[in-house]
Amino acid sequence: MSVSAVAIAAQWERKLPPLVRAMRPRQFIKNAIVITPLVFSVGLAWHLSQPSTWMPLAIKVTVAFAAFCCVAAAEYLVNDVLDVESDRLHPRKRLRPIAAGELTPRTAQGTAALLFCAGLALGGALGWRVLGIVAAYTLLMLGYSYVLKELVIVDVLTVALGFVLRAMAGAVAIDVKISPWLYLCTILGALFLAVNKRRHELLILGEGAVDHRRILSEYSTQLLDQMSATVTACTVLAYSLYTFTADNLPANHVMMATIPFVIYGIFRYLYLVYRRDEGGSPDELVVRDKPLLACMALFLMTAMALLAIFRG
After folding, report:
1. Nearest-CA neighbor of 300 among 35, 63, 59?
2. Phi, psi for residue 251 in degrees, rounded to 5
3. Whose C-alpha in 50, 101, 104, 149 is 20 to 30 A from the C-alpha of 245?
């Protein structure tokens, strides 16, 4: 998706009813992490060549995706109600429906309750284990909105753990065993994004950063730079180890061919954060930057092809 495509998507979103906009549908892409276990189990390309195999799996993954979209939308509504005053101090968040006065808190809270129930129901349709993970994610995000976002370091760890729970739900939904390394890579990758988002908030808001998000008073750009460097190194190392130690990957270690894509993607993101002062909206940045988008596409195609050839 190019810059113009992102602009078109934003323009289209502004035409939606305030209630729908408050659910932040463009950020539902984050829930696509539930697909990761399917891609890295025996290869999505192999499944696509076996209609009787991939159709049931695709349905289950879609239901899991929908469950997390419902819970995430509910969480956005709850969070915006709680942060309505601080959001009005942010150059972009002040335009959100609740902060702008387009949507009443009461309507948002009632809709959030319904969405939470819908998400749990969809999770339950996939079995009690998926229901448990969706419930755990729901409680974690509510805990984040009310308490955890005010605890230094815990705030970014909570966000990262949310991504791990999504990946776990995807694995449980299709009943595949996933290497612990993949979960480690997921939490490190999410930490990488969260830490750099905090850094961007500090820089863009300046002296008003604390008024918008109180926890930012506990951070500094120097601290976040150190955290980013540590997480970056750990992410590259963890993924590299994953490619040649995971039991569910080809025994000839051919998946190591995907390591350069991971390194380039991380370095490209750091370039955008440190040289172009971006990183406030990771979901938008990923689809707006053409080199980064191309890297992700090549990574996925290479991984799928290797898994299909050497496991199919």
Report:
1. 35
2. -70, -15
3. 50
DSSP code for 217:
G
Q: Domain span at residue 283?
A: 179-312
Q: If 0-12 CB within 10 Å is exposed, 13-18 middle and 19+ buried, where does residue 208 land?
A: middle
Residues 137 and 204 in one domain: no
User: Do 45 and 157 fall into the same domain?
Assistant: yes
Determine if residue 176 is left, alpha or beta; phi over 0 gives left, psi from -120 to 50 gives alpha, anything else beta: beta
**Average pLDDT of the residues in 287-305:** 88
Tell me the residue type at 100.
A
Q: DSSP class of residue 96?
A: S
Among the ranges given (15-24, 117-126, 183-192), the one the predictor scored with the smallest mean pLDDT:
15-24
pLDDT 10s digits, 88-123: 776 677 778 888 888 888 999 999 999 999 999 999
214-263 residue pLDDT tens? 788 888 889 999 999 999 999 999 999 988 888 777 788 898 999 999 99
Residues 218 and 122 in one domain: no
Q: Does residue 82 belong to any structural domain of this protein? A: yes
Asked whether residue 266 falls in the same domain as residue 131, the answer is: no
Overall domain count for the chain: 2
Cα 50 to Cα 108: distance, rounded to the nearest angstrom: 43
* 102 and 199, same domain (yes or no): no
Domain boundary pick from 147, 178, 209: 178
pLDDT of residue 311: 63
CATH of the domain at 122: 1.10.357.140
pLDDT band per the 50, 70, 90 thresholds, residue 287: confident
H or E element in which residue 278 lies: none
